[in-house]
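Exercise 7b. Backbone tokens:
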């Protein structure tokens, strides 16, 4: 590894001047010509800054740790993409930790690993509040922004989240008011993990004069026989609509309806949740509750960077309203009659 001393010798300047230039010190009064020469020599020699050394000296490392699970949840992947792009545009590099099936202990270990690498801040998708995390890791003095599902509604001022409850409320109410649906089923992989969505669904039913019943709430994990279970559910309970907790579940219902010769949206209307980009490519195209992950990413990065640079803390949680995207599967737009292009 190239040292500062080697750069100083090659550039014909003192070691302290090289250190000041490469670390962009405010007290560095060297001429622009000498600064340019030092930077050119450093580049030609292949100099790489020692991040751990900077961290030990209490200096910014321009690195951010992200802990999330993008590999099994498409909307998380899209969100992390936007966060990473924004951080890169601000001159920050990203370390990533996968939190799929993550226990609190494993999450704590990842945070400690990032702290040991001297990251300037963390963006996490955690089931715990930031206060809880800090109580478990007293050494954590850097800012943490939580982009988990629910903490915008629990008072955690460091949280940036989508108001998922209002999203399901809007979808359910739309089915009732605009399409006259009365037997609207709620479908989730895990109901416990989607309580805010379930509450929004139930509130919309009750406030529009439709009785809530757990008989129309179905929870099916990603198991091989899930299509048979759903088929039996449809034949037994005969719902006239579905609202789902993600778009993948909605796609599965569209496929099953096709296989059962059930017309969508005439017999069963469907609204998904997430707003994945390819939802508009299906026939029928999928109506959905779109999560504005670009805005979520922007807010999360803004809060983090403001605290890193200016020590400004957020005053309250950031809760972002989702958007109802109306297409064919709920009955808002006439089904397309054209024949799909065959390759």
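Sequence design result:
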């Amino acid at each position: 590894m190239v040292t500062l001393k080697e750069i100083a010798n090659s550039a014909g300047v003192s070691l302290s001047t090289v250190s000041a230039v490469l670390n962009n010190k405010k007290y560095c009064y060297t001429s622009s010509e000498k600064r340019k020469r030092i930077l050119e020599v450093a580049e030609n020699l292949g100099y790489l800054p020692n991040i751990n050394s900077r961290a030990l000296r209490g200096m910014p490392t321009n690195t951010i740790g992200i802990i999330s699970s993008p590999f099994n949840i498409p909307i998380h992947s899209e969100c992390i993409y936007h966060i990473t792009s924004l951080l890169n545009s601000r001159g920050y590099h990203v370390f990533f930790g996968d939190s799929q099936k993550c226990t609190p202990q494993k999450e704590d270990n990842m945070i400690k690993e990032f702290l040991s690498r001297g990251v300037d801040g963390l963006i996490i998708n955690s089931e715990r509040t930031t206060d809880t995390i800090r109580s478990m890791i007293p050494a954590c003095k850097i800012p943490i922004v939580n982009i988990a599902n629910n903490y915008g509604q629990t008072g955690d001022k460091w949280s940036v989240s989508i108001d998922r409850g209002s999203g399901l409320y809007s979808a359910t109410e739309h089915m009732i008011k605009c399409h006259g649906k009365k037997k609207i089923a709620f479908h989730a992989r895990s109901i416990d993990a989607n309580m805010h969505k379930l509450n929004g669904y139930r509130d919309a039913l009750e406030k529009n004069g439709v009785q809530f019943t757990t008989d129309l709430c179905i929870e099916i994990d990603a198991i091989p026989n899930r299509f048979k279970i759903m088929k039996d559910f449809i034949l037994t309970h005969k719902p006239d609509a579905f609202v789902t907790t993600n778009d993948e579940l909605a796609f599965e219902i569209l496929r099953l309806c096709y296989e059962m010769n059930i017309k969508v949206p005439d017999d069963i209307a469907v609204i998904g949740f997430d707003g994945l980009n390819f939802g508009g490519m299906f026939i029928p195209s999928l109506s959905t509750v779109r999560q504005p992950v670009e805005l979520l990413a922007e807010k999360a990065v803004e809060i983090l960077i403001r605290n890193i640079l200016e020590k400004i803390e957020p005053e309250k949680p950031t809760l972002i309203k989702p958007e109802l995207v109306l297409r064919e599967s709920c009955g808002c737009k006439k089904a397309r009659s054209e024949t799909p292009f065959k390759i």
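Instructor comment: Residues 335-343 have pLDDT under 50 and may be disordered. The radius of gyration is 26 Å.
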